[in-house]
Write a structure and sequence with these properties.
Elements: H1 10-21, E1 31-39, E2 45-47, E3 50-51, H2 55-62, E4 65-68, E5 71-75, E6 79-85, E7 90-100, E8 103-110, E9 115-117, E10 124-128, E11 135-142, E12 145-148, H3 151-160, E13 162-166, E14 169-176, E15 179-185
Parallel strand pairs: 1-6, 7-12
Antiparallel strand pairs: 1-2, 2-3, 4-5, 5-6, 7-8, 8-9, 10-11, 11-12, 13-14, 14-15
Length: 186
């Protein structure tokens, strides 16, 4: 059974998230280089092999993150630096359901404190590794960037899922903002 949570601060946190994630996509600096930074699959950021422990610094860098094709960059008005991203640049720390206007809305909180509503603008999709058949669930946060849902959050969704027939196949999925998001075939 889904736990529906009411949180008056959710709207303010959503506004803060939108403001934090916005930056000028029109920056096209001519100085190019390598940041010598890496974002591990668990969401931790490293510089020259050392963990960046200050969350405020990671948040600052995350505002500069851009993805072009399969390559990630930190972009400022002056320079564009490559950054290695092992999977997705953000990971979930929590998924919650809330009822709004008579429909369920799923909210994903990232490792940097941003809250993203699963919606047509921020869809949930599950990719299956062809070798291991292991699912990797992601929520788009826009600008070709995504949040990897940690295993416990994916299991929470599976526990809350419902069966439906999609394209003639029985699937398990969840609803958010009136949209159905398949988690996998049954």
């Amino acid at each position: 059974m889904l736990s529906i949570e009411s949180d008056d601060g959710v709207l303010q946190r959503l506004a803060n998230t939108a403001e934090r994630l916005s930056y000028s996509a029109d920056w096209h600096p001519t100085q190019l280089g390598d940041s010598e930074m890496r974002i591990a699959r668990d969401g931790r950021w490293y510089h020259q092999g050392d963990l960046i422990a200050r969350t405020a610094l990671v948040r600052l860098f995350s505002r500069l993150l851009r993805r072009e094709g399969d390559q990630y960059f930190l972009v400022t008005p002056v320079e564009k630096l490559t950054i290695e991203v092992e999977d997705a640049p953000f990971v979930s720390v929590e998924v919650k359901a809330q009822e709004e206007a008579g429909q369920q809305v799923l909210y994903v909180t990232t490792n940097l404190g941003d809250i993203v509503p699963v919606s047509a603008e921020h869809p949930l999709q599950v990719e299956i590794d062809p070798d291991t058949q292991e699912p990797s669930p992601y929520v788009s946060i826009g600008n070709n960037l995504a949040v990897l849902l940690q295993r416990s959050d994916f299991y929470w969704l599976v526990n809350a899922a419902q069966e439906r027939i999609v394209d003639g196949r029985k699937v398990l999925g969840v609803c958010s903002k009136g949209e159905f998001y398949p988690l996998g075939a049954l």
